Amino acid sequence: CTLMRKKISRTFLIAEIGINHEGKLNKCLKMIKSAKTAGANAVKLQIVSPEKSYEKGTKSYQIFSKVGFNDRQLKLIFNYAKKINIKIFATCDNKENIKKIEKFKPFAFKISSGLANNIYLIEDLKKSKRKIIISLGLLKKKEIDILLNTLGNYKDVVFMHSISRYPTKNYDLNLNSIDFLKKYLNKFEIGYSDHTKTDDAIISAVAKGCKYIEKHFTFDEERKGFDHLVSYGLKKFKIFKKKILKIEESLGQNIYV
């Protein structure tokens, strides 16, 4: 039999800068440019109010206290991304930060798995009428049901399979859960957010039909702290994008003629 050819749908690649910019504006701008060069479709930041999300004196509080940007800096960052034609959005931890980022007209909003059961936050994001990307790493099936009930008729949503361990070991990945999510959440797009040190799981996720892929991005893969340990720089990101294109080409269509 002959397989009919058609234009292959491209995977949407998100370079998660997160807090790997370490609070340095010029570093963040250079990383956005680097992600664009590497072939990412979008970059994502993490916007956190440490005094509201963490106990004072904790390691997380200390880290996030050093990486915040003020409104002027955020405006420069978002405008620069739009200038070089790469989509930009953020994970926000509360209503105030959602309002702050909304001013810059982001491509989407991300909800981390730790906040995916926060119905008040989801209700606030629905008001933005933007795409909502939700990681499911810490949710059980009954919590996904609550999440669906909260979303109601809101359809511009991407659900991301993820495991909230840094770095994630192969035996914890449970990539077959993607099959469950595709069936159970069949009205929505499914993606995969990676926290491993390689791209093996990403290639498997694409083969399983994930249309959105999120990979941490860095300016220095050898750097300690933050999320550098599970991140790719420009060179590796370029290579893994080429792998994805080969997988997409190989998959073709689910049809015989």
Please give a structural write-up:
39% of the residues lie in helices and 18% in strands. By secondary structure, it is an alpha/beta fold. An eight-stranded parallel barrel has the order 1-2-3-4-5-6-7-8, surrounded by seven helices. It is globular. The termini are close together.
Can you give keywords for this protein?
257 residues, alpha/beta, eight-stranded parallel β-barrel
Which strand order do you get reading across the main beta sheet? 1-2-3-4-5-6-7-8
H/E element string?
EHEHHHEHEHEHEHEHEEH
Structural class category = alpha/beta
Give me the count of strands: 9
What does the average pLDDT come to?
A: 88
> How much of the polypeptide forms β-strand, as a percent range?
15-25%
- The quaternary state of the protein chains shown equals single chain
Question: Roughly how much helix do the residues carry, as a percent range?
Answer: 25-40%
Radius of gyration: 18 Å
Overall 3D shape: globular
Largest sheet: 8 strands, parallel, barrel
Enumerate the spans where pLDDT stays under 50 for 5 or more consecutive residues. Answer: none
What is the CA–CA distance across the termini?
6 Å
How many helices in DSSP terms? 10
